[in-house]
Amino acid sequence: MSIDKTMRAIIKPEDSPGLVMREAPVPRPGPREVLIKVKATSICGTDLHIFRWDPWARSRIKPPIIVGHEFSGIVVEKGHMVHEVKEGDFVSAESHIICHVCQECRTGKGHLCQNTQIIGVDRDGCWADYIVMPAENMWLNPPDMSYEVASLQENFGNAVHTAFATDLTAKRVLVTGCGPVGLMTIMVANAAGAHTIYATDISNYRLEMAHKLGADFAINVTQENALQFIMDDSEGEGVDVLLEMSGAKQAADLGFSALKPGGEAALLGLYPSDIPFDMNNGVIFKGATVYGIIGRKIWGTWYRTKGLLSRGLVDLSQIITHRFSLDDFEEALRVMQSGQSGKVVMFPEGLPVEGA
Asked: What's 159-292's CATH class?
């Protein structure tokens, strides 16, 4: 197929809030890289941090840069040393590009690579018509998977990595934060056979989704004493596992207060700045085990993700609530920030025709 010379790209142009769409040259793949025509790209909480330009984003992002890191697309060109994929392949991508030579990479912990470059954060991302990626970062999708569901797999991997940091089977689990990745985590916990799933948030819209997707109890923390409810329902025991997905101090405080002695906590939520925390009573005196979660285990999490999706244990189409053309990215971001959405997906080639 013919490849354009220029493309649309949504960029962080300068050190200030907001994003803009501009024309940019189509990147060319190197010997071990592929050029992908983006078919669908979804919005993540990290993208909102960058859009709002909070302290974390200011400390990490170096404008100008094309943003976005969740996508699916078609390989349209490959470097001469690429053998993993071919032109025409339908792919998604692991967004963390690792070095393979640091101690973490050499000891099987590539997701902790100290030289990681994340697309849309450290190098140009996928909110564009095209993106160049290392061939080794490609994930081949089944041909019957939709573009929009395929674009969610990277983010779904965060939920899978978090949920499977510990054993959830027959456990009481608290998921704090019912944004899209929190909702996906509820789906995984349900598939894993959790005894009881408590979900907390401040959005009734997302709490209703949480209940539909498998939460036994969905609690609005602005309207109800969530800690009291959990302790009463668990007969004073608290929860075995905390999965903190929100990046909100109040959620962390609630989660560790509800965690039973000897419990386990996996934390994915990205906090906009440093927060005070009662480490003594929340962790030390409880003998709690705490896991910090970053990205996905490469490639172990992807294979677990494949297993959940291919067996129908999780249906990601249930979490997509809004679809926009890439040209309407500002409205897409507004909806995502409102709390009145599940996952929001954008399409560079315009909205797909229903049933096509």
From this structure: alpha beta
The β-bridge partners of 2 are: none
Which two structure tokens, joined as six digits, stand for 97? Answer: 């590009």
Q: Which of 6, 41, 49, 196 is catalytic?
A: 49
Q: What mean pLDDT comes out for the span 306-321?
A: 98
Q: Single out the catalytic residue among 6, 41, 46, 162.
A: 46
46 in active site: yes
Residue 345 pLDDT greater than 50, yes or no: yes
Does residue 110 contact residue 104 with C-beta atoms inside 8 Å? yes
> Which ranges of the chain would DSSP assign to H, the alpha helix?
45-52, 55-60, 103-106, 147-151, 153-163, 180-191, 204-212, 226-233, 249-258, 279, 300-310, 329-338
pLDDT digits (tens, 9 = 90+) for 4-46: 899 999 999 999 999 999 999 999 999 999 999 999 999 998 9
Q: Which CATH number fits domain 6-151+315-347: 3.90.180.10, 3.40.50.10160, 3.40.640.10, 2.30.29.30?
A: 3.90.180.10
Helix ranges, 286-326 (H):
300-310
- Give 3-state DSSP helix, strand, coil % of the chain, rounded to 5: 30, 30, 40
Contact 151, 36 (CB under 8 A): no
Distances (CA, A) of 188 to 92, 238, 279, 322: 20, 21, 28, 22
Task: Check the CA dihedral 257-295-166-217 and report its sign.
Answer: positive
Cβ pair 112, 294 in contact under 8 A: yes
What residue segments make up the domains of the chain, in order of their start? 6-151+315-347, 159-292
What pLDDT was estimated at residue 354?
67
Q: Is the pTM of this model over 0.70?
A: yes
